[in-house]
Every structure is written in structure tokens, then in C-alpha cells.
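User: Fold this; C-alpha cells only.

Assistant: Input:
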Amino acid sequence: MNPALAPALDLSAFPRRALLDGPTPIQHLPRLSAHLGGADIYVKRDDVTGLGGGGNKLRKLEFLIGEALARGADTIITVGARQSNHARLTAAAAARIGLECELVLTRTVPRFDHDYIENGNIVLDALFGARVHDLPGSANALQFAEDRANELRTQGRNVYVCPLGGSSPTGCLGYVDCAAEIVAQSHARGLPFDRIVVPNGSSGMHAGLVAGFVAMGLDPSNIDAFTVLGNASHAHATTLDKANQTVQLIAANLRVERDAISIDEAQLGPGYGMPTDSMRAAVRLMASKEGLLLDPVYSGKAFAGLVENVTTGKYPAGQKILFVMSGGLPGLFAYRSEF
């Protein structure tokens, strides 16, 4: 990545409602880097965004809520798993802006303990005033959301339906903007990164970063993602499609090539939301060496992949690795028994 050559990105044509307090910081992890004895590790602190307990979904929601308000919406509905970070932050953003909010949450993850069902994000959803629809894991959440939206429209409400993870092309613009932010910070500090590491769930963060790099004329192939939702093949296809849809919002002639998307499924384990030994070890390592808290669903698994790549030499000594820390702290309380 040569940030000095990147042109500025202009996203002013897209409706946007500010939810962040400015660029999130990039911090060095000296103790953890020394402990692992390989590459030099940095974190992009997208977990410290102030609203609603913080997290990366606020970047997407700036554009999604901007679009909702531009359409005159008074209500927002979104979907997710029971412990969805996106749902929590949608509820928080709606409370901040003054929108009614409904969350369609499915019991997708086969966990039935009290902490998972009643603690963590679900506590905060209620505090933010959202109405929660509790559906079984087999339910079609998006169809339920669309049906509920139509019901509310017959009552005179103007409803905006937001997809899983906020990962529509509009939502992905939040991570196009983050790509530009990373490039600007890298240039300002004279700190070029050899690799950028992210989790890939609903693919919006990864797709947005790739689209942002392509829009700036930079090579996106140094972005490594660890899937936490589907297998690598499915995640690759989804990410490529979303990256192309997103970059073409910026300029119709731009295209993301297949080899620009790098996804590893080695940390997925039994599936979405299901703990692994390497995730638990990564969460404990980050907490004990740097005092930072990873979540058990997204960043814990992705950071476990980063640690493995450092210890095996795939990320060798001398390289500078940037980990985008996506937040999700309330999830730790839902997974109390795992720690």
C-alpha cells in the first residue's frame, strides 16, 4: 500500500447522518508484538466509537440512516441473530436520531444457556427502546421484516428495512470511508501497512474496504479476512458481489477482480457464534498483554487467525500488520461460561 499515491474519495453525494466523533485511532501493540516475536501489530480501534457501546456497524449506519432519513422514514427495522451487534447499534442510533426501531432476531446460534438468551446485546436492545421480535433459527428474518414493514405502512408509518449486518452497498460505503481514513492515517504517520486483517461475517466491512482501495487506485489484495459466518467459497462470492456493487456506486467503470478478495475459513470452527479454543486463547492473549477486549464471535476468531499467521511466519518479522478491531464487547457477557 502506497498511501501517498491515493486520491481523496468524495462520498458527499450520498446521504449521511454522523454517528462517529471523528476518525478512530490506530494504536501499536508493543507487548503483544514482542510476545509473539514476529510481525509488528497495530489495531484500528473501531470498537471505541462512542454511541451504543461502540462497534464497526456505526460506520454502515451513518449511510443507512442517512438514506432512511432522506426517504422520510420514521421507523427502521433490521434483522440479525439473538446477540447481533448490528441490531444493538441500530437501536442505539435510532434512539439518538429519534426513529422508532424494531429488531427481528433469530435464534440462529444453537446456544440455549441463560447468558446467551438474556444477557449481552439483548439487554441493551431493550434499554435503547427497540421492539424485539424473537424468531426461531429456521425463520426467514428478512421476509418477516418486510411483512412487518408493510403492516406498519398500512398504519401510515414510513419504514426503512435494513439488511443483515447493514451490509447493503449503501452500508458498505461506511467502510469505503474507513479505507480512506486508514490511508490518510498511514500517510500522516509514515506507516505503510503490509497487511490489513478483518473478520468477515455479513461481508460489509471487507467488501467496503476492498471497494475503497479500488476506488483510490490502490491494490486491495493485502486485505486478509477470516470468515466467521459461512465457508470461504460462499464468503468469497458474497464479498466480491458486494464489493462490486459498492464500488460501482462510486464510479460505474470500476470493477473488483476475483483475486482481490482473500478469505480464510480456518478459524470458523463449528460455525457462526460457536466458540473455538483458538478464539478463547486470542481473547485472553489480547486482554492479558494489551488490556483490550475482543468479542467472541467476530474479532476473537479473526485475531486468532492473525496470531496463527504471525507464529507460523506467514506474517514475518519486519512486516506491519493492521487489525481492524470491530467491537462487540457486550457479546463477552453472553458467552460468560466460555471464559
